[in-house]
Amino acid sequence: MNVGITLLVSYFLNFGFIAFILFFDRRDSPKRFSWLLAITFIPIAGIMLYLLFSGNFLLRYKRLEKSIRHAEDIFSPLQAELDRKAEKRLASHDPALEPCARFIRLNRHYAGAPLAYSKTVYVFTSGEENYRTLFAEIRRAQISVSLSYFIIRNDATGRQLISILAEKARQGVEIRLLYDHIGSLRTSDALFEPLKKAGGEVRKFFPVTVLTPYSLNYRNHRKIAVIDHRAGYFGGINIGDEYANCSPKQRFLWRDTQIRVTGEAALLLEKCFLGDWYSARYKTRQSIAPEKSRIVSAPPEKEEQDLPLPSVCITDVPLQIVTSGPNDVKNDEIRDALLFLIAHAKKSVHIETPYFTPDEVFFSALKIAALSGIEVQIILPGDWDKFYVKLAAMPYISDLAKNGVQFFHYNGFIHAKMFVIDGEIASVGSTNIDTRSFSLHFELNAFFYSPQFAAAAEGIFRGDLANSTPADPQAFDRAPLCKKAVCNFFKLFAPLM
Fold first, then answer.
1. Which one from 415, 434, 441, 491 is the annotated catalytic residue?
2. From its record, what is one biological process in GO terms (predicted)?
3. N or C: which end of the chain has fewer CB within 10 A?
C-alpha cells in the first residue's frame, strides 16, 4: 500500500512539473524540451535536477538586488557624470563614436552600462604575463585590492597570490577576495587562512549547503581585479597553474586573454565587484559613506614604466562594461549585445571561444551572417578540457560549416572569449558561447569602440589563426553512426551544460 501511494505521489509530482514547464516556464523551446526529457526519463531525480539547475529558483534574488543597488549608490555620482559626457559626445556626432552610437545607446538603456574611457588598455595573451603584471601591481598597492575569481587553485600560483595578499594586508592595505564556491569546490579553505589571519577578508559567492542547495547553478564566472581604485583587470584568466602553463598535470598549451584598464573603466569594474561582494555577505547602507570616501581618496594615476607590461598600449579607449546574470531572467544582456553586432556586421565576424553550444537565436545569427556574405571565422580548441562539450558542439559546427561559417581548431586549448566585428568593434570578457554563460552564470564583457584596440584584437586573432588548423566540415558526416548518436544525445542537453 505504501509503495502504491509513493508511486502515485511520484506520478502526480512528475505530471505537475511537466505541466509547469509546458505552461509557465517562459524560456525558449529547446531549454524547456531538455527539461521535459530529463523529468520524463528520470522521474523524481529529474525534478530535483530541475529545481537545482533550471535557473528558475534564484532564492537569493532580493539579497542580490539590494547588493547591486548598494554598489550603484556608491558610484551614482560617477555614473551620472559619465552619462552626461556620453550624451554630449553622441549629440555632437563625435566621429569616433558616431558609427557605434546605436549600439552604445542599446547597452546604456538595456544593460545600464555607461560609456567610459580607459586611460590605457593593455592586452595579455597568456597567464604567465598576466600574473607577472598583476602580482607586481598588487605588491605596490597602497589603499585596496579587490579580487573576484571563478577558480582559485591550491597550487603554486594560488599560494603565491595568497602570500602576496597576506603581506599587503599586514601592511594595512584593505584586501577583499571573493571566489565562487562551486568553481573552487576542490580548493580547501586552508589556502585562505594566512590571508584571513593577516587581516584580509575572504568570501565565497553563493555557498552551497544542504540547507541552501538551490544556488548550485548560479555561479559567478567573472574574473575581476581592481587595485587602489585606479587599475582593473578582467577577462578569462582565473588563478591556477594551468593558466600559466606550469601545471605538472597539464596535457596541452593553454591560451587565454586578459585586459588591464585604468581610470573610469577601473571604477566601473569595482562597482561590479562590490555588487557581488555585498551579495556574499550583505552590508547595511550605513557603509556607503566610508566606501565613497575611500574611492574618492584614490591616489593619482601612477607611472606604469616600472610594471612588466606588454609592449602594445592603446590610450584613451572608449568602452562599455556590460554584465549579465540570472538575477535578470527576462534579459540576456551580453548575448543580445553580441547578437546586435553580428546582425549589423558588414564585412567580418571573428570569434574565439572555448565552448560552442549556441542557442537557437545565436546559431541563426551566425548562419544568416555567413549566408549573406559576411566572413564568419571561429577559433575553437584543438584540445578540449571537457569531452562532453566537444561532443555536443560537433553537430552545431557541422551545420554551420555547411552554411559558410569557417571553423578552426587551435593547437592547444584556447580559453579566450573574444569577438571582433568588421575590425572596428571588439569585445573581451568571461562569456562563452553557451546557454550557461548567456543565462545562468554571472558574466562580464567589455565592448571597445577604438579602431586601435580593434586592430590589436584583430592582430591577436590572426596570430591565433596561424597557430590553428582548419576544421574539416565533413568530419561529423563521416563519423561512425555510434559517434553521431552520442553527439546528438549530448546536443539534446546542450542547454543544460
1. 415
2. cardiolipin biosynthetic process
3. N
- Name residue 285's amino acid: R
Q: Is the pTM here over 0.70, yes or no?
A: yes
One of 31, 390, 417, 491 is an active-site residue; which one?
Answer: 417
User: How many C-beta neighbours within 10 Å does residue 143 have?
Assistant: 16
Whether 422 sits among the annotated catalytic residues: the reply is yes
Residues forming a β-bridge with 227: 145, 231
Whether residue 415 lies in the annotated active site: yes
**Residue 378 three-state SS:** strand
Q: Where are the alpha helices (DSSP H) in 257-359?
A: 264-280, 288-296, 333-343
Beta bridge partners of 149: 179
On the 0-12 / 13-18 / 19+ scale of CB atoms within 10 A, 303 is exposed
Percent of the chain with pLDDT over 70: 81
Q: Is 180 helix (H, G, I), strand (E, B) or coil?
A: strand
Task: Supply 428's cell numbers.
Answer: 573581451
**Given its phi and psi angles, is residue 421 left (phi above 0), alpha (psi -120 to 50 degrees) or beta?**
beta
Give the SS3 label for residue 449. Answer: coil
* Residue 221 annotated to the active site: yes
| Residue 359 bears catalytic tag | no
Q: Parallel, antiparallel, or unpaired for β 443-448 and 314-324?
A: antiparallel
Query: What is the DSSP secondary-structure string of 44-100?
Result: THHHHHHHHHSSS--TTHHHHHHHHHHHHHHTHHHHHHHHHHHHHHHHTT-TTTGGG
Q: Which of 422, 441, 464, 491 is catalytic?
A: 422
Residue 295 CA, distance from chain mean position: 25
Cell numbers at 35, concatenated: 527539461
Question: If you average pLDDT over every residue of the chain, what do you get?
Answer: 86
Of the candidates 64, 33, 18, 97, the one whose C-alpha atom is nearest the C-alpha of residue 319 is 97
Structure confidence at residue 476 (pLDDT):
75
Catalytic residue among 228, 336, 359, 464: 228
| Separation in Å, CA 128 to CA 78, 215, 242, 262, 470 | 34, 33, 10, 21, 27
* Contacts within 8 Å (CB) and 24+ apart, 85-94: 85/115, 86/114, 86/115, 89/115
Distance of CA 43 to the CA centre of its chain: 33
What phi-psi label fits residue 199: left (phi over 0), alpha (psi between -120 and 50 degrees) or beta?
left
In the three-class reduction of DSSP (H, G, I as helix; E, B as strand; rest coil), residue 126 is classed as coil
HSE value, Cβ hemisphere, 13 Å, CA-based, for 28: 13
For residues 199 and 105, is the Cβ–Cβ distance under 8 A?
no
- Cell numbers at residue 171, please? 601592511
Q: What amino acid is encoded at 62 in this protein?
A: K
Contact 445, 431 (CB under 8 A): yes
Catalytic residue among 31, 119, 168, 223: 223
Q: Look up residue 402 and give its three cell numbers.
A: 555547411
According to the model, what pLDDT value does residue 56 have?
58
In degrees, rounded to 5, the angle at the alpha carbon of residue 442 between the alpha carbons of residues 154 and 16 is: 110
The Cα–Cα gap between 10 and 14 comes to 6
